[in-house]
Structures are given as C-alpha cells and as structure tokens.
Specification:
Organism: Drosophila albomicans
Keywords: GTP-binding, Nucleotide-binding
Protein name: Ras-related protein Rab-5A-like
Largest sheet: 7 strands, mixed
Bound molecules: guanosine-5'-diphosphate, magnesium ion
GO molecular function, one term: GTP binding
Helix content: 25-40%
Number of strands: 7
C-alpha cells in the first residue's frame, strides 16, 4: 500500500507553553515510537528538535517538532524559530489557570506575527489530574472554537490523546496545502 504514496511533505511545528506544563513529556511520549529520529540533544539553552514521520493515506509527512525551554529569557530565540513554523501545539496544565492564559496570549501573538492561517492545537495537559482541575473543558472549547484552534485534553502520564494531538495537527496542516 505504502508504495503507492508518492507525496512527501515537511512541516515545522513548535511546542509552546509555560514551564512545567508537560511539553517535553508529551514529546518524549511520541519519541517512544520508532519512527522518531533525534536530531539534536542535550542543549539546555535552546530549542530541541526531533523529526517524526507520520504516514497519511495519501502522503508521508516529515514533522519537525521543536521543543522549547520555558524561561522568558529565551523569547528572542523562540521568535527566530517560530517564524519558520507552520503550526504549533500550545500546551497548558488543566490545574493551572495562568498557564491557560499564557496559551491564549500565544494564539494572538502567533496569528499576528506569523499568519492568521497559522495552525494551532491547544493541548490541555495533565487531564489525569481531574481532582485538581482549574480550567474547565467547556471554557477551553469555547476559546478554541472562537479562535479556530484544534483542542484536545491530553495526559503525558497516561498517554491519553498524545499521538492523536500530533496527528490532528498534521492533518490540519496537510489539508491546508
Ligand atoms: P515542560 O517544562 O513543559 O517541558 O514540562 P515537563 O515535561 O518537564 O513536565 C513537568 C512536570 O510535569 C514533570 O514532573 C512531569 O512528570 C509532569 N507531567 C507532565 N505531563 C504530565 C501529565 O500529563 N500528568 C501529570 N500528572 N504530570 C505530568
Ligand atoms: Mg521542557
């Protein structure tokens, strides 16, 4: 079957969100799958990149995923990276309202600075921590719908919805072409 696929696309995406929300943990989860190549490691001061191949019915997608360090002092470095991206996964922690406000700021920044078409998936991570939830699903859905973002709650701990989030982002990028 796969020999009939002749279209290969490459997309560059970023993981953004407050420090501690689970960006690196989400990436580790999808790195477990064997199509992951580690492109760059052990750089604690800059974004780290991995490449994941995702096979769609009519295309191979080379997804270059850039993880980002939390501290705000890297914001200038981030800008040079995200200028070359077509999409982003904006991660917040459902236990942390401030982290949810941060991803909302990112939506406005990215759409303004890069493109109004910029593909964004919101990931409400740590959905396993339901007993300490501070951001309702309804509120997140409302924001995502109003701003044309994909939205999923995820858990890097239980692995729920993790690969699905990346696939949803890739499908949106592919369909936009
Ligand atoms: P980053 O700073 O956004 O890269 O966050 P990390 O991936 O380093 O995760 C920060 C902390 O949150 C770590 O202690 C992780 O083990 C924990 N963590 C990440 N994802 C989850 C999750 O889905 N559920 C729970 N309960 N903890 C998580
Ligand atoms: Mg990290």
């Amino acid at each position: 079957r796969s020999s009939s696929i002749n279209k290969v696309s490459r997309f560059d995406v970023m993981l953004l969100g407050d420090s501690g929300v689970g960006k690196t943990s989400l990436l580790m989860r999808i790195m477990d799958e064997k199509s992951i190549e580690l492109k760059k490691t052990s750089n604690t001061t800059g974004p780290e990149q991995v490449i994941k191949t995702i096979v769609l019915p009519d295309a191979y997608i080379r997804l270059n995923i850039c993880d980002t360090p939390g501290p705000e002092r890297f914001i200038h470095l981030l800008r040079t990276y995200y200028k070359n991206c077509q999409g982003a996964i904006l991660v917040y922690d459902i236990q942390n309202r401030k982290s949810f406000e941060r991803v909302q700021d990112w939506v406005f920044t990215l759409r303004e600075e890069i493109s109004s078409e910029f593909v964004i998936a919101l990931a409400g991570n740590k959905m396993d921590m339901e007993n300490n939830r501070h951001v309702s699903k309804e509120e997140a859905i409302q924001f995502a719908t109003a701003h044309n973002c994909l939205f999923l709650e995820t858990s890097a701990k239980s692995n729920e919805n993790v690969s699905y989030t990346f696939k949803a982002l890739v499908l949106a990028l592919h369909n936009q072409q």
